[in-house]
Design brief:
230 residues; alpha/beta; seven-stranded parallel β-sheet; nucleotide-binding; dethiobiotin synthase activity; EC 6.3.3.3
């Protein structure tokens, strides 16, 4: 059975795109993979977006459904530009079609779980819930990408609670960027994230992973996850 992995962050700049690429590498060992960015903001028409980064790092196929130039939440950027953007229902339909032809579909959100992806108020959480509720749809997993430093426990627990309130149990947390020389708060957070959030720590990505070559990234990524063999 195919699956959809919805990748959200506890906020912006937590390493969600690089984590999506690493998850794509990990998933490719079990079958075909495609990564989807429903809405990309903050990049020009010909500039590389998050989907391009995922492709460059992992080599997997990617799609980007909507692009908006202003570096804002998608609904705000769409309103300022005066354009119509697809609803979360439309995105869900597209993802279901992709799941018919791929073993794993990774869906990377924009910012956090409750960031609005369309001008009707639909969020990434709504998208995940729509996918999970479909009676004949793929299996749906939610992965939360978190920062390493101060504040991450609160942000992560709030994200997990929001998901649970909609009947979605996150598969786990990935720390998106782990420093070479972690401070006391970061070291404690690594131990405390599973306890506070109530979901497992799936993986820890080293800082700078996004600057690796594709070959180096693909070789190293599987080892960043908790179930990696020694």
């Amino acid at each position: 059975m195919s699956r959809v992995v919805v990748v959200t962050g506890t906020g912006t700049e937590v390493g969600k795109t690089v984590a999506t690429a690493a998850l794509a590498v990990r998933a490719r060992a079990a079958g075909t993979v495609i990564a989807v960015k429903p809405v990309q903001t903050g990049v020009g028409h010909d500039d590389p977006g998050d989907a391009d980064v995922v492709h460059d790092l992992s080599g997997c196929a990617v799609q980007e459904h909507t692009r908006l130039a202003d570096p804002l939440a998608p609904d705000t950027a769409a309103r300022l530009a005066g354009v119509e953007v697809p609803s979360v229902e439309e995105h869900a339909d597209r993802v279901r079609v992709l799941a018919e032809f791929h073993d794993t579909v990774l869906v990377e959100g924009a910012g956090g779980l409750l960031v609005r992806l369309d001008t009707a108020g639909g969020t990434l959480l709504d998208l995940a819930a729509l996918l999970a509720a479909h009676p004949n749809g793929p299996e749906v997993e939610l992965v939360v990408v978190a920062a390493a430093g101060l504040g991450t426990l609160n942000h992560t627990e709030l994200t997990v609670q929001a998901a649970r309130a909609r009947g979605l149990e996150p598969a786990g947390v990935v720390i998106g960027s782990w420093p070479e020389d972690p401070d006391l708060a970061e070291r404690c957070n690594r131990d405390d994230l599973p306890r506070v959030s109530g979901v497992p720590l799936l993986g820890v990505l080293p800082a700078g992973a996004g600057s690796l070559s594709r070959d180096a990234f693909v070789a190293a990524a599987p080892g960043w996850f908790a179930d990696a063999t020694a």
